[in-house]
Amino acid sequence: MSRAHHPEPAPFTRAQQRRRELTLATIRSETGNPELKLRGERFYNGAVYVPISAAHLQAHDLYHDAQAQRGRADSISARLLFSDPDVHRSTMPADPVAGMLFDLLEQFRTEALLSNHHQPGTQQNIRHRFDAWSRLALHANLMESKLGILIFTVIQIVRSRLFSTPIDQEIEDLIEATRAGITPSLGSELAGLRRNKDHQTFYGRHALSLAEKVSNMVSECENNEDDNERSEQILSAFPLLLSTDIEADNTYSSVTGGNSKSLEMHRLQYQVFNREFDVEVDASSLVRKVQLAEFRSHLDKRFLHLGLNLREISRRLLLCLNQTTRDGWQFEEEEGYIDGSRLPQVVSSPMERRVFIKEHFVERPDSAVTILIDCSGSMRQHMENIIHLVDGLVRALGIGGVPTEVLGYTTCAWNGGQPYKKWLMTGKQAMPGRINEVCHLIFKDAGTHWRQGSKNLAALMKGDIFREGIDGEAIEWACARSHQIDTSRHLLLVISDGSPMDTATNLTNDDFYLDNHLQQVIASREKQGDIITALGVGVDLSRFYPLNLTLDIDFQPDSATFKDVTRMIAESMTRTYGKQR
């Protein structure tokens, strides 16, 4: 099924990204592991996926509660610090309910250990997170079913025993009858959990026994429920209650995905059905000169009102893009290497000290910056703000002498165009690969002065160039062009509002064909030394681009935005070249 049929999620915001960055920074600091990464809502240790499946760590209604967010970070740190994933997996029961409870019990164990070993603030954060989740659960109709009360009661009892803390009075009143009924049968397991929380293997045996007992209770409860459909609704009210495999959340706009069967069928080799109709064009040639001048005049009026300090932006950019290079010698210095031509003076004037030379170093631009703009249909609504952002970057980089290119990518037709028609006429080959006409646009090449380049950017105002987007091939093309520029470092800045999207390719292959190819291309180009960063307009692009910045969907190209973009560029350069400078 095409992703076009999925409900449209709410835009991702810069504030949400800041919260996620803070969470990741906290976890890296607490665990001492700089290799931890966030892609979408998934954690990775390097390239290894780290599942975080405990129900109380999934409640996205708590995003605006700062202490709950810190408690989530502390809880995830606890799991990474005190739990051996191999030991955990080896004991994990296959039954979904038992598996969920077993995983939750392990999460509680690690949180209890972290609380015992850290300052009171950490304990308070972890407790606050769980209490806030418990209050949410109370308002999710969980108490209207015996099944819901049973599971909720078990969770509260175990938590209380492990942490030696009382259950909230309001919750205790609601679960008291259920608690009295099940505690005798779980008594030995609860005692074993508390006694062995410092030893994962021994603890796991008691956790497994408890999880299996509760799973049997759940089965009996489901059989006795008059309304099975109601029971399913109660279970679904717990975030990820019956799953230990987390899928990326879709409560906000985040790029989600899966594995492409078409790409796997072709041994992970990207296929193009027909390249005959692909084009690379100068974007300004698509617009009448008079219309281009009108567009530019309109843009210039607003650009002046932005009040940008381009020289300050240029200075900030050059701090991270310049490279220290040797530029001859400095003479008549008081220290350094002895200047052989001044030796007679040393003899004749022993007190003269300015007889040394030093190597002279200067800061010069040694980086090329390519800005690649997604010209798919959904980007059209944001284009005026994007033009001003790109225009400001081009001018600031131009003032500093940094070579720049501004490129775009779209398709020549909707729904496949000529390649799709050829595919229909030649027998409808199964999974043919990309099946549309790509159109690569050049708004400014590296040899064009920034003043003329700014003029040509107005071609982005022409509405009929915006169609569909095939991102992976565009990045390959942009990086290949960048390497023709005589600099040692190459930075690519992609501006997009979502995943690659070409209807014909998705229909004839699968939804994730272009996504997976984009991931392949980024990984390959980064291994070759390219720095690839991305600006997501109202969308989180972290699943594709490890170095990314989210712009609010209604962002303004003001000084604050330029500071954020400059900071991201500086971070990307430091990560790659910081040790060399």
Distance between the termini: 50 Å
Q: Characterize the main sheet.
A: 7 strands, mixed
Spans of at least 5 consecutive residues with low confidence: 1-7, 233-254
The radius of gyration computed from the alpha-carbon positions, rounded to a whole number of angstroms, is 30 Å
Helix content: 40-55%
Q: Label the overall shape.
A: globular
Number of strands: 13
Number of helices: 20
What portion of the residues fall into strands of 2 or more residues? 5-15%
> Mean pLDDT across all residues, rounded?
83
- How are strands sequenced across the largest beta sheet? 4-10-9-8-11-12-13
**Structural class per helix/strand content?**
alpha/beta
Give a quick rundown of the structure.
By secondary structure, the chain is of the alpha/beta class. The radius of gyration is 30 Å and the shape is globular. 49% of the residues lie in helices and 14% in strands.
Give a description of the structure.
The chain has 581 residues and is of the alpha/beta class. The protein is built from 20 helices and 13 strands. A seven-stranded mixed sheet has the order 4-10-9-8-11-12-13, sandwiched between helices. Strands 1-2-3 form a three-stranded antiparallel sheet, with helices on one face. Helix 7 crosses helix 8 (200-224) and helix 12 (310-321) runs parallel beside helix 20 (559-577). The two termini are 50 Å apart.
